[in-house]
Amino acid sequence: MADSDNVQEQKDLFGELEKNDVKVEKDAAEKMKDNILNDKGGANYLGIGIHEVTVTGVELVQAKTGTMGMKFLVENADGKSDVSMWLSEGALPYTIENVSRLMVHNANEDKKDEARNFMSNIVSAKNLFETVQMTLAEREKSKKPFVAFLSIREDRNGATYTNKDGEEKPSLERNLLSYKPKATAVQAAVAITGGTLEVPTNEDGTPNINNLPF
Q1: Given phi > 0 = left and psi -120 to 50 = alpha, else beta, which region is 79?
Q2: Which residues on neighbouring strands pair with residue 31, listed in sequence order?
Q3: In sequence order, what are the beta bridge partners of 69?
């Protein structure tokens, strides 16, 4: 009897839903559609450490100061992250050099000198951004991942921020590199713990190994 009552209740509720069908408004529907199409499954964000990653995209960003930058979107099997490189007059030469190293690293062995020569002639932020965009598009077409090393470390100057729970946390530096850098003490400690634990630190920022679980 209980089952038949439930079936009837479901029919009645569905009838109510039909009569009072709620629909997503046009603007909200477009935003929702975009979110769904660009959802990659809720991947975790990569934490402190050195990660081998694939660059999946590049976007333009603008700081509150008005400075333009390029944001590289990266991911691996463990999660995703992003790295911004700035395009101000002072930062542009260093950004071009950093991107050049990534380009040469990903070029075929017989094309590395050609890639190096091409990048050495880029002197504008617009040309740099377009070059990265086109390179990533071509790599995607040919199914050749554009790879790099992502280094995430605590801010070397000790900068902090307050999270949504009101807790003060160390700010993080993210760098995208063509080579695997030597791990800092904290990065090494996080790697040992599997990246799942918050590493206790001393007052000077070095890891307190007395409290690590090994």
Answers
A1: left
A2: none
A3: 61, 86
Cα 84 from Cα 67, distance rounded (Å): 11
CA-to-CA dists, residue 214 to 161, 179, 189, 210, angstroms: 30, 29, 10, 9
Dihedrals phi, psi of 200, to nearest 5 degrees: -70, 140
- In the chain, the DSSP E strands lie at 49-62, 68-76, 79-86, 146-154, 160-162, 168-170, 172-177
Q: In terms of residues, how long is the chain?
A: 214
∠ CA 184-76-199, nearest 5°, is 35
Listed residue (157, 156, 94, 77) closest to 128, CA to CA = 94
pLDDT at 200 over 80: no
Identify the band that residue 72 occupies on the pLDDT scale cut at 50, 70 and 90: very high
Percent of the chain past pLDDT 90, that is, above it, reads: 50
Residues 6+ apart with CB under 8 A from 70: 58, 59, 60, 61, 84, 85, 87, 95, 128, 129, 132
The token pair that represents 142 in the structure block: 């040919």
What's the mean pLDDT when you consider all of the chain?
84
- Return all residues near 57 (Cβ < 8 A) that are at least 6 apart: 72, 73, 136
